[in-house]
Amino acid sequence: MPESARSRAVALGVLCAASMMVVLDSSIVAVALPSIQAELDFSAAGLAWVVNAYLVAFGGLLLLSGRLGDLVGRRRVFLAGLVLFTASSLAAGLATDAGVLVAARFAQGVGGALASAVVLGMIVTMYPPGPARARAIGVYSFTQAAGASIGLVAGGALTQSLNWHWTFYVNLPIGVAALVLTLLVVEADRGTGLRSGIDALGAVLVTGGVMLLVYGIAGAGDHGWTAGTVLPLATAAVLLAGFVLRQARARTPLLPLRLLRVRAVAGANLTMVLMVAGFLGFQFVTALYLQKVLGLDALSTGVAFLPTPVVIALCSLWLSDRLSARFSPRAVLVAGLVVVIVAFGLLTQAPASGSYFVHVLPSLVLMGAGAGTAIPALMGLAMSAASPADSGVTSGLINTTQQVGGAVGTAVLATVAASRTAGLADVGAREALASGYRLAYGFSAGFVVLAAVVAAVVLARRPRAAEETPELCVAGQAR
C-alpha cells in the first residue's frame, strides 16, 4: 500500500467513493420503484425483487468475497467487483423487461459484494494503528452511514428530472473513474494464495444460508410469516449450523472460528446486527411517515433526510476519532447509541397531524450525531484484532452482519407497523398509520437498547492488543 500520507489519502478517497456508490445503489432505486413498475409492468410481488435480488446476492456473498480477498489479493477482488457492478448497472439501465432487470440487479449484488467486502480490510492494512487509522475508518463509516440517505435524495432527483433508468446510469462514470484511479493509486497486494484453500463446502453452506436468510426475512416484511417465509428461514438455519460445524473441522476454514472467540470481533458483530436493525428500520419507517402521514412527495422525502448525513459527516470525520482517543471506542460507541435511543424516543410521540420541523427534524439531527460517533467506533473495534492475513474475512464478516441487521430491522418494523395499523379500524387512516409507525419506532429503540447493552457488557474498554492480536497474527502467519 502507498507509504506517503498524501497517496494514502488519495487511495482512501477512491476506495470510499466506490464504496459509497455501492451503498447508494441500495436506496437510490427505492424512490424509482413506482416508475419501474409502471413501465415494465411488474406485479406487486415481483416489484419487491428489484430490491430483494440485489440484497440476496449482496448479503450472501460478502463473507466469501472477503475471504477471496485474503487469498488472491484484496485489490484484485475489489477491481473485479467494480467491473461487474458497473457492467450490470449498464444492463439494468438498458432493461426493457422485468426479468432482465431482476437478473441485472442480482449481478449488481454480486459485484457490490466483491467490491465492498474488502474495502475495510484494505483501509486497515494501509494505515497503522493510531489516530490516522481512526480518521480513515471515520471517513469509511461516513460513506456507509450516510450513503443510504444521500441515495434517497439522488433517486428522487433523477427519477423526477430524467427517468428511472438514470438511477442505474449514474453508476457508470463513477465506476469507470474508480476503476482507473484504483489501478493508478492503490498498490496491489499479494494474498496468501489459493493453495491455502478456500473451503468450497463452507463457501456453499454460508452463501446459501445467508442468501436464504435474507430472502426469508425480506419475505416476512413483504408477505408476513407464511410457509414461504418460514421454510427459507428454517433451511437457512440448517445450512448455517452446518457451516459452523464445517468451520470447526476444516483444515483451512472460510471463517476461522478463533476470530469469534475474540471479544472485540464477536461483540462488535453482534452489536452491528442490533444497531443496524434499528437504524435502517428507522429510515424505512420515517420515509413512510413523511409520505403517507405528512404528505411529502418522493423528492421532498429525500431532501428531508439530508440533515442526517450532514451531521453524520461532521461527527464521523471530525469528532468520533478525537473522542475515542480521549475516552475509549467502547465509551464513544455506547454514548452514541444512547443519543440514538433518545431520537427514537422523540419519534414515538410523532402525531398524525405532525410537523416535519417539530416532530421529525430534531430526531434526524440526533440520529446523525449518534450514528456519526457510534459507527466509526464500532468499525474500529471490529477490526482492532484482525491480522493482515485475516483482515479481508473480518471486513466481510462485519459487512455481512450489517446486511443481516438491516434485513431483520426492515422486516420486523414493517410487520409491526402494518399489524398495528390493521388493528385500528375505528380511527382515521392517518392516525392508524401514525400509530403503527410510532410502535415501530419503539421497536427500533429496543434494538438499539440491546446493542448498547451488548457493547457495554461484551466489548472491552480498550482493544487488548497484547492479549488478542498476537494470537491472531501468529495464526495468520501459520497459514
TrEMBL record:
Compartment annotation: Cell membrane
Major place of residence: membrane
Domain Major facilitator superfamily (MFS) profile stretches: 11-463
Keyword Signal: no
Topology class, membrane: Multi-pass membrane protein
InterPro entries: EmrB-like, MFS, MFS_dom, MFS_trans_sf
Keywords from the named record: Cell membrane, Membrane, Transmembrane, Transmembrane helix, Transport
Entry superkingdom: Bacteria
PANTHER family the record matches: BLR6921 PROTEIN, MAJOR FACILITATOR SUPERFAMILY MULTIDRUG TRANSPORTER MFSC
This protein's name: Drug resistance transporter, EmrB/QacA subfamily
Lineage of producing organism: Bacteria, Bacillati, Actinomycetota, Actinomycetes, Pseudonocardiales
